[in-house]
Specification:
Elements lengths: L9 E3 L2 E5 L3 H18 L6 H6 L11 E7 L9 E9 H7 L8 E2 L1 H4 L4 E10 L6 H18 L1 E11 L7 H11 L8 E2 L17 H7 L2 H8 L3 E2 L4 E3 L4 E9 L5 H11 L9
Parallel strand pairs: 6-7
Antiparallel strand pairs: 1-2, 2-3, 3-4, 4-6, 5-8, 7-11, 9-11, 10-11
Helix pairs in contact: 5-9, 6-7
């Protein structure tokens, strides 16, 4: 397991955000992912996954695991109530690829000269799905980005289900209003490519589509994020995936300024 601690825990009342420091905490994050993805969202698990009660794969061994912990629940693995998997370029090179490459051609992202970070496997316990928890996760990501000089973040985000009719307005809104510029735009691999621009402009309620997006995707958009070209149906996980690209220089000041005040690092080059 990859275990590092690039920044001090950021606290908000009883909650904190930091990177996992023990294998037991990483296992707790995998158990949380299993409960959310398989038991709650209906992903299809193989026999080994069911037996372990963990959502795990080869990428976990090279990733950093961002955790939200509730100190009222204890100081060990039992405190883990939220998680985000973070994979830097150097970590992906140990495996030979990023997780996103199973669904998208990310050649243009790989050509980006500064630090890159893949975000994925984000989830929180049902009792902690609040704006405050999401903001805490983003503060943790901002701190991580500062320490590792990340210039670009990317990954796959999901719409619930694989019904293209049900998700038509959401996919169309994303394609028509938030597609990445050509020099950074991931494209779904040809064998899995699903067109996102499914409805004519003006034929759907764009504001309603924006409001109906999952909170995580709306969070990326608030940070100036873009989507790639084409969606991918992930049948085992019962989701419709879109590629996300976020330039860290676009992250709102409230996250960076918060961390700068805590660390005293005003003026540092975030991406260099």
């Amino acid at each position: 397991m990859n275990i590092t601690q690039p920044f001090e825990e950021i606290r908000f009342n009883n909650l904190g955000v930091r990177v996992a420091t023990t294998e037991a905490e990483i296992i707790a994050a995998q158990a949380l992912r299993y409960r959310v993805f398989y038991e709650e969202m209906g992903a299809r698990a193989d026999a080994g996954t069911i037996a372990s009660g963990l959502d795990s794969d080869e990428y976990d061994a090279v990733a950093d695991h961002l955790l939200v912990v509730d100190h009222d629940r204890g100081e060990g693995p039992e405190s883990v109530v939220g998680t985000y998997r973070l994979i830097r370029r150097e970590a992906a090179q140990r495996i030979g690829r990023f997780y996103s490459e199973d669904e998208y051609d990310i050649t243009r992202i790989l050509e980006y000269k500064d630090g890159i970070l893949e975000l994925g496997r984000s989830c929180t316990d049902v009792a902690y799905r609040t704006r405050g928890t999401l903001q805490l996760l983003w503060r943790g990501i901002a701190a991580y980005v500062f320490n590792h000089k990340i210039g670009l973040m990317f990954g796959c985000a999901s719409l619930p289900g694989v019904d293209l009719g049900a998700n038509a307005a959401l996919l169309t809104y994303l394609a028509q209003h938030h597609q990445a510029p050509p020099h950074l735009c991931p494209r779904a691999i040809e064998t899995r490519y699903v067109p996102m621009n499914r409805l004519p402009p003006g034929s759907y309620d764009a504001k309603a589509a924006l409001m109906a997006l999952p909170p995580l995707i709306k969070g990326y958009l608030r940070l100036g994020g873009f989507v790639g070209d084409g969606a991918v149906l992930d049948q085992p996980f019962n989701t419709t995936d879109v590629a996300i690209v976020v330039m860290t220089e676009q992250i709102t000041d409230k996250y960076y300024k918060h961390y700068e005040r805590k660390s005293g690092w005003e003026g540092q080059d975030r991406a260099g």
